[in-house]
Input
Amino acid sequence: MNILINGLIIIATFCVMELVAYSLHRFVLHTFLWFVHDTHHLPRTALFEKNDVIAFIFGIPSWLFMMFGIMGGCDARLYIGIGILIYGICYILIHDGLIHQRIKIFSNPKNWYLIGLKLGHEAHHQHDSKPDYKKENDVVWGMLWVPHSYFRQAKEIVRKRARG
Output
């Protein structure tokens, strides 16, 4: 029974992290922490950008939850920390790997879900290179949950590829 409960804690934490990431992105990074996030909307000039600090900051609560969870006899805090960690790994793989190609792991996805995520995030960045760029014009949503229309487009792309 403990395995089931601990697994549910991990899954619930992972899902909550999507809401946290959305809220942070929309209400913090695109407002008063724009001076940190703005590098994410500019052409990349180096391996790292100021915005990467945000991802590292999420490592702190994950580490603290896991550490105090272990110190408390492997209680729920450990599994909350694991859920945050798994979300962070997904962030690196999906956001940095698939979407922005900072690590070349998903250069040509064939899965409609991955294609839909990429399309949704591209919509977020569609105004970046325009001379009249305004952060207020950016659409903002989570990393793993984008509007259904992008998944519909992705399914059509997969169908067209299958037909040749």
In short: Residues 2-163 form one domain. The chain has one domain: 2-163. The chain has a mean pLDDT of 90.
